[in-house]
Every structure is written in C-alpha cells, then in structure tokens.
C-alpha cells in the first residue's frame, strides 16, 4: 500500500467516528497541556531566578583572594611566607588560563575615609581598581561615566543616600540625596599615630559618574584608580608598597563565558589561591530546577498514561466492530503489514490530534497564567521594591515539539497491541464474525 493511500485511509477511518475520536483525544489534550504548562512553569522559575542573579552578580566574574595554608583555614597561625599572595607573577599565571579575558587588581583602603559635600557628610567604602574604566569589570553608569583618572572617582548608586547633615536638629526635614555626578567632593583620609593622635589628609575628588544599581558591593562603594589608592595606603602606613612582593588584596577575573567559569575557578584554586564565583551557588540551584522540571513533566505524563488507556480501549473496540472489514481487506490482498499500519496510524493519529490540541491549550493557559502572575507580582514588587518580573511561565521552542512527538508516540504504543490483534486475524474467521 502506498504511503499517501495509507494516510488517506487513516483519515477517512478517523473521520467516520468523529465523536469517539474526539472523546479519546480529550484525554491526550489534557495530558499534553499539563506537560506544557507544568514544564514551562519550572523553566520560567529557573529563568527568572537566573535573570535576577545576573542583575545582582555578573556570572562571568570570579573574585580571587590570597591563598592560605590548610592550618590557617582550620584556625591555626599563619605567616606571610605561607600565604599565596596575589603578586604580579600570580596575575600573569591566572591571565594565562584558557577562558580568562581580564584580570583586574582591586585594593581596599588601609584607613577610614569621610566624604564631604557642602554641609553633608558620609562614610564610604573605598576601592582602588587596576583599570581606567569600570566597564571592564562589568559595571555601567547610571549617570556620568565609568572612566577613572587622576583626581576622579566613580561612586555606587547608594552612596548619595548615605549623606547626612551632622548639624541637623530634631524636627528638621532630612535633606534629599545630592546629585553628585560632575561635582567635586572633599575626601578625608583618617589615620592615627602611635601615640593615638588623629591625622587627617583631605583630597579633592571629582565624581566622574554614578554606577547603575547592582545590589552588590559596588552600590555602597567609591572607586578610584589603583595608583591613587596605592599612594593613599603608602601615606597611611608610612612606607612604600612593593606589589611584586606584597601583592594585592583581591583580583577580579572576567571569564569569556559563564559556561567556563567553574572550570577557570577550579584552575585558580589549583594554583593555591581562593576563587569565589556566583556560579558555584547557581549550579546546585540549576540541578534543583532540572529535577523540578522532571517532576512536573512526570505529573503531566501520568495524565497522558490515562489517555493511553483510553486510546487502547478505543482501538480494541474498533477492531471488534470492524472484524468483518479486516477479513474482507485480507481477502482482497491486504497483508498483515498493511492492516498493522492502518490501525497503528489511527492510534498515532489520535495521539497527534490530541497533542496538537494540548500544545495549543497549554500555550494559551501559559499566557493567561503569565498575565495573572505578572499583574500580582508587579503589585507586590511595587510595595517591597526590586526588579519587576517579565514572565512567570516560559515555553521554549523545543517543548511543544517534544510534547507533540511524545503524545504521538503514546498513541502509537497504545494502539500497538490492538493493531497486532487486527493484523493476525485469520481472514476466514474474520469474515464469519458477527
């Protein structure tokens, strides 16, 4: 029997029993829709989590700290000679690791610092970085620029909010956060001599820009060039700093892709340093969401299993009703293979029709859930703060295709036993069947 003749015959047979086929296909529709909705929900939860984590922390970033011997990690004493310092040679070794794009030194201030802007004051976390543009670290400017130079600084998004008026009297209104981009601040370094005398050094700093909020360390920090930070720290401790021997307090390593971050981080640890990355926390969470997808998909598959029983029952009844027809087909030359193909095709057709309906229903249900969930979550976010959600359910292209193929396969497997029974009927016996 030719393929197109087979398809025509299958379509005619299904069309003769529209009501029964429709009722049987409803079970497949429900099961397929359940798989699409539940798996899409799990994928949407995972993508929302990843999107929020990307906003908080760059997943291509690795923070590297000096390495400590095992005794120090267990609380024992440690000497500088035992430490694996972040020297210039260490930077070269890390930069040579495949997948590493940039290695940027970062240093903290050895002393406290106070910012002044007019009558307002604020204490701030000061960081020196070994780059002239903070975009190399992955930061963007909300206003102004991310470029650093001599006598300039870039501030985090929370820094203006931390300014206060030390002479504010009770009952007076709290001053509004100042707009600092392009303004010149007075930065005062504070250290103490051996006899406890306070020594101050005031430095004018022009604010080149303000960073976009990241909900991380950068939000409450002020960034300056590494040259200026080194000069300030040398003033604080009263001696020169030899980076080739003493190294830096921290390195920021940027990888070429989030996929290689864990491997790069492990290689840095193998060199004796301490490497931390958000990816090491994201990996177990991704595994959890993968298990969640399997569980949700399994729940939907149970509904398809129930539908499979319905298909098997429908095909069994069809064989009983069409026994004489099967005998007549064999009498005029139809082979066992032809009969098997017809009944398997009908079972697969029910699965396919139900799969198409289930995919459409599942997608529509997902859109409705998205609208309801986003409306509700947006109201919650407006009260608690945070980024607004873009979606609650996400349906990737592969999911409808996979689900449709799975529903069709369920139909074929469900019709396999009835089709074998039909194919093995003896023509004479079948023609006598009442």
Describe this structure in words.
The protein has 2 domains: 3-56 and 284-432, no CATH class; 101-254, no CATH class. 51% of the residues lie in helices and 17% in strands. The chain is built from 13 helices and 12 strands. A hairpin with a 5-residue loop joins strand 8 and strand 9. The radius of gyration is 35 Å and the shape is elongated.
Could you provide a short overview of the structure?
By secondary structure, this protein is an alpha+beta fold. The protein contains 13 helices and twelve strands. Strands 1, 2, 3, 4, 5, 6, 7, 8, 9, 10, 11 and 12 form a twelve-stranded mixed beta sheet that branches.
How are the SSEs ordered, and which strands pair?
Layout: H1 3-16, H2 18-56, E1 61-65, H3 70-73, H4 88-95, E2 100-108, E3 112-117, E4 120-123, E5 125-129, E6 141-144, E7 152-155, E8 184-192, E9 198-211, E10 221-225, H5 226-237, H6 243-246, E11 250-255, H7 261-270, E12 274-276, H8 279-321, H9 323-331, H10 336-384, H11 398-414, H12 416-423, H13 427-432
Parallel strand pairs: 5-10, 7-9
Antiparallel strand pairs: 1-11, 1-12, 2-5, 2-11, 3-4, 3-8, 6-9, 7-10, 8-9
Helix pairs in contact: 1-10, 2-8, 2-10, 2-11, 8-10, 8-11, 8-12, 10-11, 10-12
